[in-house]
Amino acid sequence: MKLHVADNIKAIVPYPPGKPLDELEREYGITDSIKLASNENPWGPSPLAVEAIQGCLTGLHRYPDGSSYYLTRAVADWVGCAPEEIVLGNGSNEVIEFLVKAFVQAGDEVITSHPSFLMYQKFVQVRGGENTVIPLRDMTHDLETISRAVSERTRLIFLDNPNNPCGTLISPERFEDFLRSLPETVIVVLDEAYVDFVDPAERIDVLSRIRKPDGIPAVVALRTFSKAFGLAGLRVGFGIMHRDIAELLHRVRQPFNINLPGQVGALAALKDTAHYEKTLNGTREGRQWLSEQVEELGCRAYPSHTNFFLIDVRGDATVLYESMLRQGVIVRSMKAYGFPDFIRITVGTEAENHRFVAALAKSLKELGYVAG
């Protein structure tokens, strides 16, 4: 084929998807594996969400509500803002795409950190924008260097808070100082995919920021139903922002971007506070227990404000990943993120956590990474 393809599209490296679980089991000859690599909710979806989705299936011949009227209002009530300050997306990553479409043109600049969510940079490349990537410092966002990197061409700054893969958090005080160091022409995007797991006392007050005083940059917060609500397969997320920004994003949003099961499932999940609290409590307890067990095995467990955490395994993380995979325990090697001796694991159920520790102990011993 003789195709005319723009250089910015040619330069994009496709997002590397993981193999399906059943394909990994077939490839490695294992069964009954557990997946602790993708920061999913191990307790599954809300039973209320499942029931609501089952009840809507006979209506699949109809288009969904193009404005997601009821879900938008329920999300606004949950957050404590006005419906006009909410934009829903097919996953919060679609809201990221809306922001880039609305505010970035060829030659404009967007600042991100590394390591962080890869899709920030890919959406910018599609638009022909320029990515300025600032390395983390001490495993957290280097706000001072980011501030100095801002130019008259900077349109957006993306900060995942907590950071993935490190699980670190920007304090409200640091964030406030950071905002005041920036020009008003920049939009600061806080990707809060894991904020449900953060102690409320340590969260940034995004509502006061989206209704910003003059002279302070606009703030947009992103959240998702994929993690604490256990609905990753439905792809529903949302952004919280000033209504003027929301109005602009609706101009680039396609109608029907949230499908019918997504709308009714997310709406029901918001009402299931018991499942939500079970997830938060189980994550908190499991993270503490796992961290203690990992340290006893001679590794280093890094503190985290999320449902995952990093582990320094004192050896090649990819080799250890392969060793654990053969035992049916799937974790994430951080070699591609610049941490060759680290793995990242999701906090699982009690049974999954015990199985992970047993597999880790066996692999560490066989590989000789730590004493014991």
From TrEMBL:
<keyword id="KW-0368">Histidine biosynthesis</keyword>
<keyword id="KW-0808">Transferase</keyword>
<comment type="pathway">
    <text>Amino-acid biosynthesis; L-histidine biosynthesis; L-histidine from 5-phospho-alpha-D-ribose 1-diphosphate: step 7/9.</text>
</comment>
<keyword id="KW-0663">Pyridoxal phosphate</keyword>
<dbReference type="InterPro" id="IPR015422">
    <property type="entry name" value="PyrdxlP-dep_Trfase_small"/>
</dbReference>
<dbReference type="GO" id="GO:0004400">
    <property type="term" value="F:histidinol-phosphate transaminase activity"/>
</dbReference>
<dbReference type="InterPro" id="IPR050106">
    <property type="entry name" value="HistidinolP_aminotransfase"/>
</dbReference>
<keyword id="KW-0032">Aminotransferase</keyword>
<dbReference type="Pfam" id="PF00155">
    <property type="entry name" value="Aminotran_1_2"/>
</dbReference>
<feature type="modified residue" description="N6-(pyridoxal phosphate)lysine">
    <location>
        <position position="227"/>
    </location>
</feature>
<dbReference type="InterPro" id="IPR004839">
    <property type="entry name" value="Aminotransferase_I/II_large"/>
</dbReference>
<comment type="similarity">
    <text>Belongs to the class-II pyridoxal-phosphate-dependent aminotransferase family. Histidinol-phosphate aminotransferase subfamily.</text>
</comment>
<comment type="subunit">
    <text>Homodimer.</text>
</comment>
<protein>
    <recommendedName>
        <fullName>Histidinol-phosphate aminotransferase</fullName>
        <ecNumber>2.6.1.9</ecNumber>
    </recommendedName>
</protein>
<dbReference type="InterPro" id="IPR015424">
    <property type="entry name" value="PyrdxlP-dep_Trfase"/>
</dbReference>
<dbReference type="InterPro" id="IPR005861">
    <property type="entry name" value="HisP_aminotrans"/>
</dbReference>
<dbReference type="InterPro" id="IPR015421">
    <property type="entry name" value="PyrdxlP-dep_Trfase_major"/>
</dbReference>
<dbReference type="GO" id="GO:0000105">
    <property type="term" value="P:L-histidine biosynthetic process"/>
</dbReference>
<keyword id="KW-0028">Amino-acid biosynthesis</keyword>
<feature type="domain" description="Aminotransferase class I/classII large">
    <location>
        <begin position="32"/>
        <end position="360"/>
    </location>
</feature>
<dbReference type="GO" id="GO:0030170">
    <property type="term" value="F:pyridoxal phosphate binding"/>
</dbReference>
<dbReference type="InterPro" id="IPR001917">
    <property type="entry name" value="Aminotrans_II_pyridoxalP_BS"/>
</dbReference>
